[in-house]
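Hi P.,

Sorry for the delay on this. The queue was packed all week, but I finally got your sequence through. Input first:
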Amino acid sequence: MKIVVLDGAVENPGDLSWEELGKLGELTVYERTSMTDEAEIARRIGGASVVITNKTPITRGVLERCPSVRYISVLATGYNVIDCAAAREKGIPVSNVPAYGTYVVGQFAIALLLEICHHIGAHSEAVRQGRWEHSTDWCFWDYPLMELAGKTMGIIGFGRIGQKTGTIAKALGMEVLAYSPHESESGRAIAQYTDLDTLLAKSDVISLHCPLFPETREIINRETIAKMKDGVIILNNSRGPLIAEQDLADALNSGKVYAAGLDVVGEEPIRGDNPLLRAKNCIVTPHISWASRESRQRILDCTVKNVKAFQAGAPIHVVN
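Then the structure:
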């Protein structure tokens, strides 16, 4: 069985091993493949029956060019890069990797928040520049420093990652509100479920952890921001298109939103003309919430299990 990995560099820049996957067939790993050239993608797939991709698109056109493909596995939870309908028509199961990053993505959301509260990086750089050495007083700070205890975090989307973020927020002394179409006992143990308008009105911090669906696209926009407290903090390390970016930039520049911590944007890699790059008090990181070594190892381990299950005739984690 021929197995091809189309874009392995981000999942495994050299600190993991493809060995277990290589035991399952004749393995070819490409570091990167064109995101737009269907002919190149098809050439890279060649006669492989198992295709593994992270962000390289597998379109209907690619599948038409590659009749040998029998199975597709995604090195991620999101699978929007696959034309799942076309794969289903051809009897090709598509599997993803669910729930690999619960701990680290929740941790990263709180890291964004703590950086907003304390500006640790900026203050460390100020010390290295000699400002503490030459300070008249025994300490200084350049930004308001914020204590989270007693404040309210509202979490939109309260699945595994939302609940993990809520658990950490509670440990910091915060009250937690949650808005989700699906309520659970585990969620009730962490947060008070509420409607969206109540969450928007009562939260000091709003953290997004919902999937990208038509009904959640740009859920943060001019109208919903107007319902928030003045000086609210917004966090997003879920999906970039959950936010109307110009609306958020305007709210940051006006001071309606005090700060934003974002690990995702609507178009990735980010474009130089993205308004958030010029907005006040906006942290943007390059979609790395998921990327701890431990998390990436779980992705690889699950992918091996996915391929083994397909070879055994009982594919798992199938999304189509």
